[in-house]
Amino acid sequence: MSEQVSRQAVGWRSPSDEVLVEEVAGSDRPAHYFLAETLDGLYTPYALRLPDGSGPHPFVLIAYGNGGGGMRWLRDRVHRFRHVTDVLLDAGYACGWTRYRTEVELGYHHGGALHADVRQGMGLLNRAPLEYEDEVAILRHVAEHPDIDAGNLFHVGVSHAGEMLFKLLSHYPGLLRAGVAAEPANHELLTLGLDDAPSVEITDGLRNIESLEIRSTDRARARITDPDEVSRRLDAVDIPVLVLGREQDELQGIFGLSYELLAEKRNDAEWRSWSHDIHGYIYPETGPDGVPRVDDVQREALEVIVDFLDRHRG
Q: How far apart are CA 224 and CA 314, in angstroms?
């Protein structure tokens, strides 16, 4: 259906409807909290920070891990992991930490594309929206902000949020200019068969993969159950993607395979990997003294990310 009908169905709000403004320590660039209306008429929060100077500015959506936690999680993230936003602001990017609903086990794999229509003047969906579709709602909402350049929207996601970037691209082309998938947990996107893995437990249809270990791309590739579907999903990727690995991560094979398969489709796919003890190392944490703890690897990785974004700005 058309974008116009879709927006009528869910009743989009004005981006001027701030719900909270908070000062951020050590900065004169506060966090502006908004609620974006989701595709099923509920609301998901994000915290927008704007760089110095007049807009419109390019925008980077920043996401980490699975969903849930609401405003409490989001406000903690804005302050405790502010360094990544400070770096992006200094580079001229508006940016926003985001929050979204909790992941549904294999909901993406089994649910297919979301289709919307109108019945009796209200929206009707063929399935419930998923967490990456809350990101779609946020991107559409922030694109209407007068200080945001809607033609230069970017996505940086770590872990499950790295997989969310791939999922978003497979179903919603045309939203983003480029994206960064750091340590993307792409086991669902890549249709990896895990039920027979000795470290995976299944209870009430929910898989526990906390102890999963797939360090080599060959081992990850051998677990693909539907290569044709994986190919279709990656065919839909319409932007450059930088995939970041972590040398000692138990899922490094999945990260590397994500890049290899995407590089078979697109010559603008990029790969970088570092050795670091922290999962999610591109988001340095602020210490008890209010100073971000940033080491050389984190500093280099953030420089690489900014360079990647700069090279793909329109």
A: 35
Say if residue 227 is preceded by a cis peptide, omega within 30 of 0: no
Between CA 173 and CA 153 the distance in angstroms is: 12
Give residue 232's domain range.
3-311
Q: pLDDT digit string (tens) for 247-289?
A: 999 999 999 999 999 999 999 999 999 999 999 999 999 999 9
The yes-or-no verdict on residue 13 having pLDDT over 50 is no
Give the tokens for residue 190: 């890549």
Q: In 3-state terms, what secondary structure has residue 219?
A: helix
Q: What is the CATH number of the domain that holds 138?
A: 3.40.50.1820
Complete edge-to-edge strand list for the sheet that includes strand 31-37 = 18-22, 31-37, 43-49, 94-98, 57-64, 148-158, 178-182, 241-246, 270-274
CA angle 302, 279, 159 (to 5 degrees): 85
Span 78-120, pLDDT tens digits:
999 999 999 999 999 999 999 999 999 999 999 999 999 999 9
Query: Domains in the chain: how many in total?
Result: 1
Q: What tokens were used for 154?
A: 């970017």
Start-end of H helices in the chain: 3-10, 70-80, 83-90, 107-111, 131-143, 160-171, 217-222, 227-235, 252-265, 296-311
Of 95, 101, 125, which Cα lies nearest the Cα of 113?
A: 125
- pTM as predicted: 0.93
Separation of first and last alpha carbons in the chain: 28
Question: CB–CB of 204/105 below 8 Å?
Answer: no
Residue 12 has pLDDT above 80, yes or no: no
* Whole-number Å distance between alpha carbons of 243 and 157: 10
pLDDT confidence of residue 195: 77
Residue 181, H or E segment: strand 178-182
Q: If you ran DSSP here, which 8-state letter would residue 106 be given? A: T
Radius of gyration of the chain (CA): 19
